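User: Structure please.
Assistant: Input sequence and predicted structure:
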Amino acid sequence: MRVLLVGSGAREHALAKLIVSSQNAVELHVAADYVNPGLKREAERSGGRLFAVDTNVPRAVAGVAEEVSPDLVVVGPEEPQFRGVADALRERGFSVFGASRACSEVERSKVFGRYLMWKHGIPGRLHFMAFRSLSEAEEFVKYAGDVVVKPARQVGGKGVRVIRDTKAFLSETKQQVKSGSVLRTFEELRSLAEDYVVLVEQRVEGVEYTAQAITDGSYVLPLPLVQDYPHAYELDLGYETGGMGCISGPGYLLPFITRDEYEATEKIVGRVLEKLQEEVGDRYAGAFAGQMMLTGLWGPTVIEFYSRFGDPEIACLMPRVESDFLELLDRAARSALAGAKLRVSEDTVSVVKAIAPAGYPAFKKEASGHPVVVDEGRIRELGCHLLYASVEQGIDGMMYTKGSRAFEIVCAAEDYERAYRLAEAAVSYVKSLDGWPLYYRSDIGSRQLLEARRREAERVRTVHASKQARGTLGETFTVWMPGRGIVANPLLSPLR
């Protein structure tokens, strides 16, 4: 089977490994923005090749597809979806696993995702207000108390600012900080010329996790839950990143998520997919994910949606999948997913750690261009996998950082303690050659962090049980503004 994979990073490297592990003979080709050494190797070993093109340009990717003539095209990242790459390929008659431009709007526009949930009364929704102008957003946030200020458009985690303020009227300094957060978000997104620019949501606390699924538009195949760790530094401190690592298992759950919570999450994901297709009038064939949080407000609560596999979430599942993953992708693309089963190892857990150059994510220019080397043989001896992410092979044959996460280490074992030890050992085999610091999160997968998540989940369940007994699920958010009265109320839809 001939497959064309679109994308350049660790997510695509994980997908490449899953694809070439198929029981069927696979010839893998890759359309990537740069020469990722891992993707290049997977392609060449299978008899294919890597094409360096701008993956955000539909015509460029379609040109590669016409040259390769694949049986299946798999579109990995979100930005090519937003630009209509999957649509252009389908228009030319190719079988494609990847959301269309219309379907990927649920990730591209966070306002649309929130609107969808409110319109159809889907549980797990957060109250929100969206703004086209800076002055409106500043005025609202001044009185809003505890909120999260986000770009209204998906920009890879950039610009999210959490404002914790339960005494909104007592401090002029707090109001200046809040206005500054809106201003910085507005300036960062101004060039995108979106309809809505700033999204203000109620802030919630709890345990985050990712629920991924494969769908052909009619049938939804849930994948095991994964917990991603987006903060740059240990103890969940520092900048929001694309993800510094994750954990998965055992089975379909996580150590701090119950079967009932998993099933409630599945229902939310399925309902959103159903209503999304109704709204946009298009079939969804690809990966879909809800970035969730277990909160006292609703229980499973939606933070945002992904119209693709998460990175590093898909890496976490790579060593646990026992089914022919390529077959599932192909069946989803062909509207033939009904009846398909996903087999995963019930007795193993996995830990993923991303390794990034100092400067990521805020100062990517400074984090770029540094030579790195990795002893992949020693990592394999530990039974772990190395995924190449934001590193490029130069004309001199050396690998250089590109400013984002450079590598991901994937380790699986019978329990988290063993998987954690393996991952900690494996990261030591990645080195910087010019002395530029590399960093990773040592706490991911540790006993201490797992226990902290369990305690937090229990605390949240106590609050949720109380709200459920009183019939007040979803209620917390009210904003009063001078001269206007109550402008946001959890009992009223923000769509009016």
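Confidence is low (pLDDT under 50) at residues 166-174, 189-193.
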